[in-house]
Amino acid sequence: MKKILSYLFNIVFPPRCLYCGKIISSPNSICEECFEKISFISAPYCQICGIPFEVEKQTPKNLICPSCAAHKRLTRLNRSAIVYDDFSKNGILSFKFHDKLAFSKLFTKWLKLSGKDIFEQGVDLIIPVPLSYRRLLRRRYNQAAILAKELSELTGIKTDLMILKRIKHTKAQSLLSHHVRLKNVRNAFEVSKPQNIKGKRILLIDDVMTTGATLCECAKVLIKAGAESVDTLTVARTLRE
Q1: Per-residue pLDDT of the chain in tens (241 residues, 90 and over written 9)
Q2: 24 in the same domain as 68
Q3: Which residues pair with 23 in a beta bridge?
Q4: Together in a domain, 190 and 71
Q5: Domain that holds residue 100
Q6: Beta pairing, strands 201-209 & 229-237
Q7: Do 132 and 23 reside in the same domain of the chain?
Q8: How far is it, in rounded angstroms, from Cα 110 to Cα 205?
């Protein structure tokens, strides 16, 4: 009966591409034309921070970028599914600010695929980057929490949406320079129950990585509270400031 109702619903309201609105065969997806416009991040990329190398595909897959070779990172692995560019940002901003929550199903599938290296290393708990109460009231939902919850359902890994809290309202990171971003999020987070993350491998989820300042500050707080390791996984990342 459920399948029949679903079939009839799709006839009356056929699934459409989340980006362009074209009728497609599967819900919560995108058409072939829009798919071709998405810049997916694939090997070769830095095995630590995940930034793609602008080199040929024949390049060995176990390379580390100069920055990771020179400096030890707080996080174990950083991965992102796609490049944040003029095309992809339309979907991300629609999901983040304009209630287009259907994007969450698509983005979560991409997160699972792009986070393969992380899941192979082992994850005990999935945690979203939190919003301040002021921003949460205005936006009505935390897009990172939605992604974390759905990724938990896909992978069977537990999630905790409340253990990491933002205790200081900060300016929007997108409006600030790299140096100011670091200062802006300093001491902005805390762990409410450190005993619940002690010795655990944490996966931090967010929609976009730009400079990584927010994710780095969250990782610092989690490790200080006793986490064994912290990985980060985002839908997109910028390649240039």
Answers
A1: 555 555 444 555 689 999 999 999 889 999 999 999 999 999 899 999 999 987 665 556 678 999 999 988 899 999 999 999 999 999 999 999 999 999 999 999 999 999 999 999 999 999 999 998 888 888 899 999 999 999 999 999 999 999 999 987 766 666 556 667 767 778 889 999 999 999 999 999 999 999 899 999 999 999 999 999 999 999 999 996 5
A2: no
A3: 16
A4: yes
A5: 44-237
A6: parallel
A7: no
A8: 13
